[in-house]
User: What shape does this take?
Amino acid sequence: MQPLTPQQVQAYLGHIDSHAPQQADRANLDRLIAAHLQRVPFENLDVLLQRPISLDADAVFAKVVERGRGGYCFEINSLFARLLLSFGYQVSLLGARVRWGLANDAPASMLSHLLLRVELREGSFIVDIGFGGPTPPCALSLHGRAGLGDCPYQLQAPSAEQPLYQLQARQNGQWQCMYQFDLQPQIWVDHIARSWYTSTHPQSIFLNNLMCARSQGSERLSLGNRNFSRRYPDGRVEQQSIESAAQLVELLSRTFGLNLDPVSDAEPLRQRLHSLLQFDHP
Assistant: This one.
């Protein structure tokens, strides 16, 4: 995986309204994470519309920075990794098995999520700006909660009962597992194959459900099919049901900040959502 070009770096920073770090440290890493989460949504609209997902570096850059869209983990976490590499951060790719929304005794899920490991002076940290729901607003240390305060996210280290790391989110007073992972570095070409499977398999959750998420101030906004959620820093979650496909498209544009062309994006998406979610009204 190669860094972005200097021209791409400047355009990316302008897009997320941030500036280049003077040194590759934790404070600047957290600042870049926060800026990205505020501006670039997680979204799977192209998958829903059965459009090919290109993970070519220039194609992802064009989609996110030049066209004002978002993407799912393989797109936006890989783009963010290239940005970090451009600033001298030491980055490696990891793979995770998503457990969010599953019962504790549910069968193992496939290795379908890309996250990042970043080495800093303080040690190893996990970075993930590409999860379609609750998302840590900062880097998480593999060695404890130092510096996290009341952050409603934590990493649970492996144990005799659970041999994998777990990223957990606090929701309504309880810790829930988002995903499980180990520290085996993943090769980029393997993630390309996983992305193809995730975006094309008939039973893929991404092909059969609308998903979008971004941060707004200290809150995390999420959209799953008809369900619009607002997650607060203390773990509280408010939910609202959306009543039409047209309202969903409007929400994606106005609230999540996606740049949707009225003809080539918005109308095909409205039709797809109306059919998929079986709304009574357009």
